[in-house]
UniProtKB/TrEMBL annotation:
Chief localisation class: membrane
UniProt key word Transmembrane: yes
Keyword Protein transport: no
Name of this chain's protein: TonB-dependent siderophore receptor
Domain Secretin/TonB short N-terminal: 73-124
Membrane topology label: Multi-pass membrane protein
Family label: Belongs to the TonB-dependent receptor family.
Compartment annotation: Cell outer membrane
Pfam families associated with the record: Plug (PF07715), TonB_dep_Rec_b-barrel (PF00593)
Protein's organism: Janthinobacterium fluminis
Record NCBIfam families: TonB-siderophor (TIGR01783)
Keyword terms, alphabetized: Cell outer membrane, Ion transport, Iron, Iron transport, Membrane, Receptor, Signal, TonB box, Transmembrane, Transmembrane beta strand, Transport
Signal peptide residue numbers: 1-41
Length: 811
């Protein structure tokens, strides 16, 4: 069968009917691996024009089809010529005659000109050679998943989080931030919040928590329980105390900012955080590393991948670590065992199946918050020490075990039509006995209340996502059509019992020996079962190669069933539905400038009933955004600026007429400016910088005193900068020096009165590479600054200085 960049309409219609019939019968077992697109014919002079390309490695057929579209040539070839072959991709500035040999490198194929911008592939007796060195940039090994950038660079040029298709960030009409594996390796963040500390508009909630990944994005709370966390494009985790993700198992972190229900369904309006798992590699990958640090930190880690057979149709990835460590808070460990694996079967040139599994065992303790007096407010007894532990040593713990099992199955019916099906199962078991210490007595030295709680949590979730991607062009308009359905099932159970502690806790002279009362079952936490089904459609239109227009709509049906554990109260079930959409427009100028405007929506179910028994409506989010990106051709620079207004309606407020009930008359509005820069200055310096102005306030509430008040835990100003110098340019080969500053402006307490002072912390890195070895020294909070990071229900210290020395061997 011949593959052409432009298909006849009748062929497309026949193919569409065939595929739709196939999809109905195989919706749970078929998907597409590659996103090839049609190439457009061009006149002969276009082939001689030099143009910048950034095409990742992958199956030869998909790479050639993408090159055809971007170059404008008409490229034809027989399916059997490319079956089972891969291409190294293309990165740099080339003419078409220079680019084709580079794309075909290693394959016994030649592209023969047919005239008028048309080429045909034929067999040759020798493998194609690479393009001339002068026409290419330095060789790069691609280790990311298909459709993503090289993980060895700081800046990302493409992402799927904004469209669920492989799209240049420049063409996404909504703000996107990406943290690459290279940035994670250089900055050595402790968790997701640390990794996103150099991204605009994202801040942590509790400073030193090691039990949950929770954030504030564009002024709104975000976390697993609010539907904001995703893994490989599917909803991830159920409850915030399912634990923190392991960064060593990730290829990258992507953030889509603002309302995003079109592609992701139920979620709080701040945005979506999508983490991307490490995937099997076509080339051998072997890495072993050891780490030593303060607080008795010891860690070993390994990352392995590559082909499993001679033709490369089977490949794998195996990643793991083991860590034993204390922390700056007394009696709080940071121990972890992690193992993830993936096997990819390239069934044919157009079909692949990737099996994924992950196990994570975390042992730590929850760090309970401190009163405002002694942390952000004066206390006659002095200030609390940052290492103060409020729990019960030997009794309190966080012992969490998470497991993940899933697959990505993809099949391409043609260069224009792709079907994907992804599924995942998640399970979490947490033993979580804890101690609560609240308030201050009259002397402001001891607690007003003191108690402990027995707690065991269990969560499970099942997700699926099935979609069709159809690309069509041939004229002034190119379409990438996406239609899909996703399902989510989430179950959470928390068994608790409360115990009274008769002695108060002394904050300044901690007493950890006290009498604990009998267990009294806590019956206030019902079992929760959530289900959601969403259907979405999206059209990305490229008009005259100048305009990128995105239109989409989605409909969701969600239900929540609560099962009381008191054995008396009846079960309750609430159902809701919502239709959301998104529209955006980008202009692509020749000089790399790309202004954009967009409108997007979100929704989030709300549990409970109003006085009189009426069910609450879902809360709704709406975002208006305008921005400007600049990405000069052939450079590693991406500069972006965006302004937005993000509003959440149907927010719960106290019912002024009926005590103990709520009404949905509240509204929260966030307006902001975000700036991000990811650039290289000369050959020696790499710079990341961000700034965010976030003005989030209550605009409607039944309590007039709250109207116009700034939202708690949201800094008005936040900024960061990270720079890295390659000292090889100064005569010290293999050595790099990096450093950064993170500034977070003052915030208000979320549920407590008081103002959290602004703070600035510095980070530093020194690394040296020689042969297969990489040695590094990372220092986070270089000056060991003592500061309060945030106040929610209480106040939390930020991390003190962390020093980690590492040695990594790669071969």
């Amino acid at each position: 069968m011949q593959h052409f960049s432009r298909a006849r309409r009748s062929t497309r219609q026949q193919l569409t009917r065939t595929v739709l019939a196939y999809a109905v019968g195989h919706v749970c077992a078929a998907t597409a691996l590659w996103l090839p697109v049609a190439a457009q014919a061009a006149d002969a002079p276009a082939a001689q024009a030099r143009k910048a390309y950034d095409i990742p490695a992958g199956p030869l057929e998909g790479v050639l089809n993408r090159f055809g579209r971007e170059s404008g040539i008409l490229l034809s070839f027989a399916s059997d010529l490319t079956a089972g072959l891969n291409s190294p991709g293309l990165r740099g500035s080339f003419t078409v005659p220079e680019a084709l040999p580079a794309l075909l490198q290693g394959a016994k194929l030649t592209a023969v000109s047919q005239g008028q911008g048309a080429y045909a592939l034929v067999r040759s007796s020798a493998p194609a050679a690479a393009a001339p060195v002068a026409a290419t940039l330095a060789a790069v090994t691609v280790k990311a998943v298909a459709g993503h950038d090289d993980a060895a660079v700081y800046g990302a040029k493409r992402s799927s989080v904004g469209s669920k298709t492989d799209t240049p960030i420049l063409e996404i009409p909504q703000s996107v931030s990406v943290v690459t594996a290279r940035q994670i390796e250089a900055t050595q963040p402790r968790n997701l919040a640390d990794a996103l500390a150099y991204s605009a508009g994202v801040v942590r909630t509790e400073g030193s928590d090691r039990t949950a990944d929770s954030f504030v994005i564009r002024g709104f709370q975000a976390g697993a329980n609010m539907g904001n966390l995703y893994r490989d494009g599917s909803k991830f985790m159920v409850n915030p105390y399912n634990g923190q993700q392991e960064l060593y198992g990730l290829e990258r972190i992507e953030v889509l900012k603002g309302a995003a229900s079109l592609l992701y369904g139920t979620a709080a309006p701040g945005g979506i955080i999508n983490t991307v798992s490490k995937q099997p590699t076509a080339e051998p990958l072997r890495e072993l590393g050891v780490e030593l640090g303060n607080y008795r930190r010891k860690q070993v880690k390994g990352d392995f991948g590559g082909p499993l057979n001679t033709d490369g149709s089977l490949s794998y990835r195996l990643t793991g670590l083991a860590r034993s460590s204390d922390t700056f808070v007394d009696h709080v460990p940071d121990d972890r065992q992690f193992l993830s694996g993936a096997i990819k079967w390239q069934i044919g040139a157009a079909t692949a199946l990737t099996l994924q599994a992950e196990h994570l065992h975390s042992r730590t303790n929850y760090v309970y918050g401190l009163p405002t007096a002694g942390s952000i407010l004066p206390n006659p007894n002095g200030k609390f020490p940052s290492n103060l532990y409020l729990g019960t040593p030997g009794r309190d713990k966080y012992d969490g075990k998470n497991a993940l099992l899933g697959y990505l199955f993809e099949h391409a019916f043609s260069a224009n039509l792709t079907l994907r099906h992804n599924a995942r199962a998640f399970r979490s078991e947490v033993a979580f006995p804890s101690t609560s210490v609240d308030g201050l007595d009259a002397n402001q030295a001891s607690s007003a209340s003191h108690g402990v709680q027995d707690r065991d949590d269990f969560s499970k979730a099942y997700t699926t996502d099935t979609s069709l991607v159809y690309t069509v062009g041939g004229g002034r308009v190119e379409h990438t059509l996406l239609a899909g359905v996703d399902t989510t099932y989430q179950y959470h159970r928390s068994i608790r019992a409360d115990r009274e502690v008769k002695q108060p806790f002394d904050y300044f002279k901690p007493n950890y020996v006290y009498e604990i009362g009998q267990a009294v079952p806590n019956l206030w936490n019902p079992v929760s079962v959530l289900r959601n089904v969403g259907v979405y459609v999206q059209d990305q239109m490229k008009i005259d190669r100048r305009w990128s227009l995105l239109l989409g709509a989605r409909h969701d049906r969600a239900s929540e069933r609560q099962i009381p554990v008191d054995g008396v109260s009846p079960n309750s079930k609430e159902s809701s539905s919502a239709t959301t959409g998104r529209a955006g427009l980008v202009y692509l100028a020749d000089n790399g400038l790309a202004p954009f405007v967009s409108f997007s929506q979100s929704f989030q179910p709300v549990s409970g009933v109003a006085f009189g028994g009426a069910r609450f409506k879902p809360s709704r989010g709406e975002q208006y955004e305008a921005g400007l990106r600049w990405q000069p051709a052939g450079t590693d620079t991406l500069l972006s600026a965006a302004v937005y207004q993000l509003t959440q309606q149907n927010v719960m407020a106290a019912d002024p007429k009926h005590q103990g009930f709520g009404v949905q008359t509240g509204e929260i509005r966030s307006r902001g400016l975000e700036l991000e820069a990811n650039t290289r200055i000369g050959k020696a310096f790499t710079v990341l910088a961000s700034y965010a102005y976030t003005n989030a306030s209550t605009t409607a509430d039944t309590d007039p005193a709250l109207v116009g008040q700034r939202r708690g835990a949201v800094p008005l100003h936040a900024a960061s900068v990270w720079g890295e110098a390659d000292l090889a340019n100064f005569g010290v080969a293999g050595m790099k020096l990096g450093g950064g500053l993170r500034y977070v402006g003052s915030t208000l307490g979320l549920f407590v009165d008081g103002k959290v002072p602004a703070y600035t912390v510095a980070d530093a890195m020194l690394s040296y590479e020689t042969g297969p070895w990489r040695y590094a020294l990372n220092l986070n909070n270089l000056g060991d600054k003592r500061y309060i990071a945030s106040c929610t229900y209480a106040c939390f210290f930020g991390e003190r200085r962390q020093v980690v020395a590492s040695a990594t061997y790669r071969w």
